[in-house]
């Protein structure tokens, strides 16, 4: 209830609340000025609280944005590291895996073969016949084009889980999981025929191939030596052929 009390010097506006307690009324009067100040303080406190909540929400929002940005940067860094690792294991000219990658994989397959009698794999060592003449006669750009085209042919003749790698200037090696020596020889002969008689966008070449298969006790070095010996036999016999060691 709004009342005006008469003071000595002026009237005093007040608000009065009355509550009935035990058959009598208890009245509370608050001077309007005091109430106004109290309400203003409450209002200011509420506004400060709302501002703090708003600032907190903004801070949380910015924090979430920063966390998201950090996560994105971390993923970019992981992707970049993976790209760098891939580059370190990839031949830049052909896009095939390189010798380092192949050596690691051969070691993995040797360990698998040691632990299981059913695990087997074979290797094909492939060399472009008379490649030096291609470079000397037609230039290195033509030689590079021939190597790239040969790499595509090798990929077309192999399975997705076979590993085709460039291991030297004009040397390629193919790791054939779950292939015995005879099966690997058939694949090598198919590759040789495709290279010899298939279409070429650039200069036609032939290849010599050495075939070997894992035997218990072999190491990466001994496997490469056996494949190299088979390749030497092919080249010594006139090139453009497949030999097994």
Automatic annotation (TrEMBL):
The keyword Lipid metabolism does not apply. Residues 35-90 form a coiled coil. SMART domains: GGDEF (SM00267). Keywords: Coiled coil. This is GGDEF domain-containing protein. GO terms for biological process: cell adhesion involved in single-species biofilm formation; negative regulation of bacterial-type flagellum-dependent cell motility. GO terms for molecular function: diguanylate cyclase activity. GO terms for cellular component: plasma membrane. Gene3D superfamilies: 3.30.70.270. InterPro entries: Diguanylate_Cyclase (IPR050469), GGDEF_dom (IPR000160), Nucleotide_cyclase (IPR029787), Rev_trsase/Diguanyl_cyclase (IPR043128). The lineage of its organism: Bacteria, Bacillati, Bacillota, Bacilli, Bacillales. The keyword Coiled coil applies. Residues 119-245 form the GGDEF domain.
